[in-house]
Amino acid sequence: MPAKAPKATPILLVAEEAWKALASGLSAPARRFAEVHGFEGKSGKVLPVPDGEGRIEAVLFGTGKDAGLAENPFLAGKLPAELPAGRYRIEGTPARPDLVALAFRLGSYRFDRFKEMERPAATLDLPKGVDAAALDALSEAVTLGRDLINRPANDLGTEELAEAARAVAARHGAKVKETAGDALLKKGFPLIHAVGRAAANPPRLIDFSWGDPADPKVTLVGKGVIFDTGGLNLKPDNSMLLMKKDMGGAATALAAASILMALKAKIRLRVLLPMVENAVAGNAFRPGDILKSRKGLTVEIGNTDAEGRLILADALALADEEKPDLLIDYATLTGAARVALGPDLPPFYTDDEVLAEAIANAGTRTSDPVWRMPLWKPYGAMIDSKSADINNAGAGGFAGSVTAALFLKRFVTETKSYAHFDIYGWVPSAKPGRPEGGEPQAARLTAEMVLSRYGHR
Ligand code: BES
Ligand code: MN
Ligand code: ZN
What we know:
This protein is α/β, with parallel strands linked by helices. It has helices at residues 19-23, 28-36, 79-82, 97-106, 132-150, 158-171, 183-186, 190-196, 237-240, 248-262, 308-321, 335-341, 353-365, 400-409, 443-454; strands spanning 9-15, 46-50, 56-64, 86-91, 122-124, 175-180, 204-210, 217-222, 224-228, 268-278, 290-292, 298-300, 326-331, 347-350, 371-372, 390-391, 418-422, 426-427, 437-438. It folds into two domains: 9-130, Leucine Aminopeptidase, subunit E, domain 1; 135-454, Zn peptidases (Aminopeptidase), CATH 3.40.630.10. Helices cover 32% and strands 21% of the residues. Strands 6, 7, 8, 9, 10, 13, 14, 15 and 17 form a nine-stranded mixed β-sheet that branches. A five-stranded mixed β-sheet has the order 2-3-1-4-5, sandwiched between helices. The longest helix is centred in the first third of the chain and has 19 residues, at 132-150. The mean pLDDT is 97.
C-alpha cells in the first residue's frame, strides 16, 4: 500500500478462499483490524480497515464463494449505505464491472419526495471498461421507474403519469399523441374508457414514437393503473394497500424506452401507456357488463378487478394494427404471478421461441431475472363467455397469470413477435441494490435484448 492514501479509497472484493493471500498485502494495522473483526470474506460483509494513522486504507468487501461477484454482481449494492462519505474505486476486475457500478448507484436510491432522508454519500469511480453513458442511462431509467411507482396515487394521478411520459418523450425528441376522457370513446378505446370513467382522474392514452420510421418497429405497452381499488368488486383492505404500484407496467415501459432512446437504439420505438384509476362510483363499469373492445371482440366483465387486461386489450389492439416487428407489454397484472414465482421473478409469456431465449438470456446478463411460463392453449376455455367473445376473469381461479396472458394474446393477431411480462413491480424487502419499494422489473433486460437484436444507430 502506498504511504499516502490515494484520492479514491480502494474496495477489495474478497472471496473466502482468497482472503489469506489478500490479507498479506495489507498493512499490519489493517490486517490486524480485519482479524480482530473476524473478517473472513463472508458474503456481503463490508469492513473499512485503517492504516497506521487511522485513515481508511481500504474497504474489504466479502464475496463469499462468489469470486469477482460473477454470480451476483448486485451484491455491490450493499456498499454505498455502509460506507462513509467519499470516493471509492473497485480494486481489481470484477466479472461484471458494469453491473457492480450500476448496483452501487441503485443501492444509493432513496424515495425522499415526502421525507428528508440521509442519502448514502459514497460514490464509486467508473471502473475500467464501463461505458459512462450506458451507466447513466440505466441508473436514471431505474430511478425514474422507482420514483413513479413509489409516488402515491394522490401525488401521481393519470395527469402526472402522463406528464412524466411527456417529459421522457420530450427529452429525446419523441412525438407524443394523447387521448383523454370522452375522446377515448370517439377514438375507439372503449375498454380504457370503461375502466377509467368512474374516477376523478380522467382516463388517458399516451402514444409516443421515436426514431426512424424505416427502422425495425418496436412497441412497448405498459399498464398504467394509478390506483386499483378493484372497482365494484372491491379489494379487501390488505389487498388494496399497495395498489399505487399498479402503474408499474407503465413505469417499466417508460424506463425501458428511456434507455433505448438515450443509447440510440436502431429502431422506431413506440410507447403506448393506457392510464386509468380503477375507482368506485355510480358510473363505474359493473360485473356482468358486456363491452365491445377496440378490436371488435366483445368482453364480458366477470370481475371489475381484472381491469388491467381490459385497458391493455385496447392498447395492444392499437399496437397490433401496424404489425410491429416486436411488441412487448408490462403489467402488474395478477396476484397469481406472485403466488407462482414470488415477487422477484416475473413470469413472461411468448410463443416466439427465439424471442423467449433472447429474453431469458438478457435477463441473466443484466441481473434482471425473469422466468418463462406457458401460453397453455387449453386453459383458454377458462376465459370463455356464454354471451360474449371472451370473459375478463378466469373461471375457477386456476392459473390466473396464464389465463390473463391468454386473454391479452387474443388482442394481438397480426404481430409475429409478442411477449407479455406479468411483473410485481415492487421489492417487498430490501436486497442489495434493490431498496424496498417500486422496481421497474424487466426494463433493463428489455433494453439489453432490443439493443443486442437491432443494434445502435
Ligand atoms: N393489480 C392487480 C394484480 C395484482 C395484485 C398485482 C396484487 C400484484 C399484487 C390486478 O388488477 C388484479 O386485481 N388482478 C386480479 C384478477 C382476478 C380478479 C381475475 C387478481 O390477480 O386477483
Ligand atoms: Mn385489479
Ligand atoms: Zn390492477
